[in-house]
Amino acid sequence: MYALGLLGLAAQCALVFARPAKYQWDFGTYFYASQLFTKGQDPYDFEALVRLGTSSGAHGDKLNPFIYPVHALLWFLPLGELSYHAAYYVYLALKIAAGIILLIVAREWINGPWWRALTPIFALLMFGGAVPSDLRTGNVALFEATLVLVSFALLQRGRPGAFTFFIVLASSFKTALLPLMTAPLVVRARRRWLATTVAASALPILLLISWFAAPGLSRSFLHASGGLVDGLRPRAPRGALNASSLRILADICYLVGGNANLLATGICYVAWVLVILSLGVYAWYKFDCDDRVLVRNEPVALMYLLLTYGLLVPRLTQYSYTIMIIPCMFALCRARRRWLTWAIVCFACVPFYFIRRDLFNVDPLSPAVSFALLPLEYSNFLVLLACWSLMTFAPRSTCVRATARNPATRT
Q1: pLDDT value of residue 292
Q2: Residue 252 to residue 403: CA distance in whole angstroms
Q3: Alpha-carbon distance 312 to 352, whole Å?
Q4: Are 75 and 82 in contact (CB under 8 A)?
Q5: What whole-number distance in Å separates Cα of residue 308 and Cα of residue 388?
Q6: Ranked by mean pLDDT, which of 234-238, 328-332, 402-406 comes out on top?
Q7: How many degrees, rounded to 5, is the angle at CA 153 between CA 149 and CA 155?
Q8: 8, 121 in Cβ contact below 8 A?
Q9: In the 8-state DSSP scheme, what is residue 385?
Q10: Is the dihedral of CA 329, 382, 173, 274 positive or negative?
Q11: Residue 404 pLDDT greater than 60, yes or no
């Protein structure tokens, strides 16, 4: 099974390798943004980005606006010195390396030979093919997932300093990862307050440095990222293109009220956050193994933190679900009701987005049309919610199965 999953992932990599003119268009955005920056132009100027991509003959019609912080450009400047095709293959090789590291790190949380053998299969199929989607688009989601889970593995092994380094690297792409920097507090790691403070302050410091070093570009970044608020309009990316709690609440308000009522959506989202956090606190205390020595079941707490983050983050595209594969597998392999586990697995592996788009020729950006279709359009979110629920409402005996590796390192 393991080899079969690896073969499927290798086929996806070979497809992307063989057709550089068709795939990794998000990488094209990063590549040409770095070239505009090198030339002293504004990488957030979408028209200039498209002109440069079109003149180079690569993905001119598929490029998206560059919406990452100014300091994120440092990741792509070395690639910008190469030709597009050379950089394309180097970038793909780095993604393959990140995927291999992710499969190795997954062994920290996936127990049992059967579930470990299924890990590549899940990576290939889960959430409608989140990993293949990331490979085809050329997004940074796979790098982000690898850095976050490596940081969690290091924290679990009692290395909060290394955790801080890798989680800051991951957040240099997307500022939405800031809540995950509370992981040392969740597992009560030694020097937890220092690690959390350093990690949480690094991102604002980087943004301030960028503001003073390049105030014009920083203003352009704020303007470009502010466009994400438009995600609440009826024809904004939705369904598999943005299966987040905020987007599904916006669709519900649209179906009920006839338009995307921002106030109603905001109220519903705040209520949703309060409910999830309240249940999360309840589950967090349930994960304690021994309150007398303050030892926490670290794997459970860290995976639960990731699942809770996924339920609350306001934007979560299909490839962004890559980071949720291992936490969901962790929840599924610990569940007691096997029939429910495999029902969730089967539902998670059905590519509803492609069925709706390719078989029924439905525009992915079309507004919500009925409540009956919402479970299919937001299947990824429902799978995430089901896995979170398995851990939240699991009996205490299933949550306190493994003890911390070294209780003496906890304070």
Answers
A1: 35
A2: 42
A3: 22
A4: no
A5: 7
A6: 328-332
A7: 115
A8: yes
A9: H
A10: negative
A11: no
SS3 367: coil
> Amino acid identity of 364?
P
> Are 133 and 23 spatial neighbours (Cβ–Cβ below 8 Å)?
no
Burial class from Cβ neighbours inside 10 Å (0-12, 13-18, 19+) for residue 14 reads exposed
DSSP 337: -
Q: What is the DSSP string of 169-237?
A: HHHTT-GGGGGGGGHHHHTT-TTHHHHHHHHHHHHHHHHHHHHHH-HHHHHHHHHHHHGGGGGGSTTSS
- Kindly report whether the global pTM for this prediction surpasses the value 0.70: yes
Query: How many residues are listed for the chain in this entry?
Result: 411
Quick one: tokens of 335? Answer: 């569940």
Place of tokens 């393991």: 2
pLDDT digits (tens, 9 = 90+) for 289-315: 434 333 356 788 889 889 999 988 888
Residue-by-residue DSSP string for 80-109: HTS-HHHHHHHHHHHHHHHHHHHHHHGGGT
* Residue 232 Cα distances to 215, 248, 308, 376, angstroms: 29, 10, 22, 19
Runs of H (alpha helix) within 258-324: 262-286, 298-312
Question: Which residue has tokens 């955005």?
Answer: 29
Q: Is the dihedral of CA 193, 196, 202, 207 positive or negative?
A: negative
What is the residue whose two structure tokens read 């800051």?
168
Partners of 296 in the beta sheet?
288
Structure-block tokens of residue 407: 């209780």
| Nearest of 263, 256, 257 to residue 232 by alpha carbon | 263
Rounded Cα–Cα distance for residues 394 and 400 (Å): 10
Contact, 392 vs 280, CB < 8 A? yes
Residue 317 contacts residue 323 (beta carbons within 8 Å): no
The conformational region for residue 57 under phi > 0 = left, psi -120 to 50 = alpha, else beta, is: left
Per-residue tokens: 358:
């390719």
Q: Please tell me whether residue 356 adopts helix, strand or coil conformation.
A: helix
- Angstrom distance (rounded) from CA 110 to CA 116: 6
